[in-house]
Design goal:
It is built from six helices and four strands. It is of the alpha+beta class. It folds into two domains: 73 residues; 86 residues, Ribosomal protein S6/Translation elongation factor EF1B (Alpha-Beta Plaits, 2-Layer Sandwich), CATH 3.30.70.60. Strands 1-2-4-3 form a four-stranded antiparallel β-sheet. The protein is elongated. The model has no long low-confidence stretch (mean pLDDT 83). Keywords: Membrane, Transmembrane, Transmembrane helix.
Amino acid sequence: MDIPPTIPTSFVPRSASVIARHSGTGVTGIYGLSAYVILGIVFVFALGTFVYDRVLAGMQSSRGASLEKAEKAIDLATVEGFVQLRNRLNSGTMLLANHVALSKFFAILETVLPTSVRLTSLHLSFDATKQVKLDGTGVAKSFNALAAVSTAFANDGRIKEAIFSNLIVNKDSSVSFVLSATIDPKVVAFSP
């Protein structure tokens, strides 16, 4: 019986040409090549990361030195002056935000009130909800003039909930009244 050709007849190694023919072909050669390519790419990225780390460390140290130099160059008196200026500006802004400016209110009264009606006293106050309350007394030449004022307040909308009370007809046919109303807070707010 003959020995099949796949079974070696001796333990003597084959020649290099036969081994080379079998090792260069097949799937393992492609996997090996791709593994070496991936290993090369990883090595390049690792080397790039190391170099980039060194560059960043150098930049950090140079910027740290320039920051220390700049900190030493700061004049503390100048910094204190800037802090004091900032505090003053903040205080001024707060004061202006809470400032009551009545010029706009008086301009509205001048345009809304007819010449036949005059206010003899006027009191403005703020309640707990920051609403502006108007209390005053006045004299109108007639009931019609007083009705005109009430209509003008209603049409204007900035003087709201105007209530005329304690109406008294004087000897000269003029009408004395007490006025109570609320004012839109924007009317008395300061605006530059």
